[in-house]
Amino acid sequence: MSYDILKQHLKKHVDLSTADLDLISSYFKPASLKKKEFLLTQGSICKMEGFVLDGCFRVFTFDKKGNENTLYFATKDWWLMDIDSFMNQTPSDLNIQALEDSKVLLIDRQDKMALYELLPIVEKLFRIIFQKGLVSWQRRLVRNHSFTSKERYFHFIQTYPDISSKLMDKQIASYLGISHEFLSKIKKNKK
């Protein structure tokens, strides 16, 4: 499994030497997941942070009525984890499932903390990555509160055409916070 995608991603955020990139990469372990396989299930502790090399994942939770609520999708060059469970080692509220055969690089909490000590720039690197992720979450919250369902749908398919083409309507509806039936009406009116 190639670490080049991870190295290129890390170089976008901070200036790292080849030796630093090799060292950081050595702390990540490759994993392959089959379609529908779970990397994390609700109630278990998130022991790994993942970087997607190939494939597509969804991060979701079940509400009290058993409905799925999708927080985000992750494809090549994206990170996935339950940050609360990972950092605090508490039971997760989230599920992480492969939507197709996928490959990831995983780092556990102990190795990540060791990297922080060994190579202080890694802490800056992950702070920058975390901040960019937080900005993305904030923008999504603003859209969810200010866009109509139809506007959210069109924004999603225009912004993430590669992801939306891999998903079932039910999964897109779950992400948008609307019913599958309402999404069908939006798509029908679009034509």
Automatic annotation (TrEMBL):
Drop me one GO molecular function for this one. Answer: kinase activity
Kindly indicate whether the keyword Signal belongs to this entry.
no
Q: Which Gene3D superfamilies match?
A: Jelly Rolls
Which keywords does UniProt give here? Answer: Kinase, Transferase
Report whether Transferase shows up as a keyword of the record. yes
- Cyclic nucleotide-binding domain ranges (all copies): 32-115
Q: Which Pfam families match?
A: cNMP_binding
Please identify the protein, giving its name as recorded.
cAMP-binding domain of CRP or a regulatory subunit of cAMP-dependent protein kinases
Q: Which organism is it from?
A: Arenibacter palladensis
Which classification does the entry list for the species?
Answer: Bacteria, Pseudomonadati, Bacteroidota, Flavobacteriia, Flavobacteriales
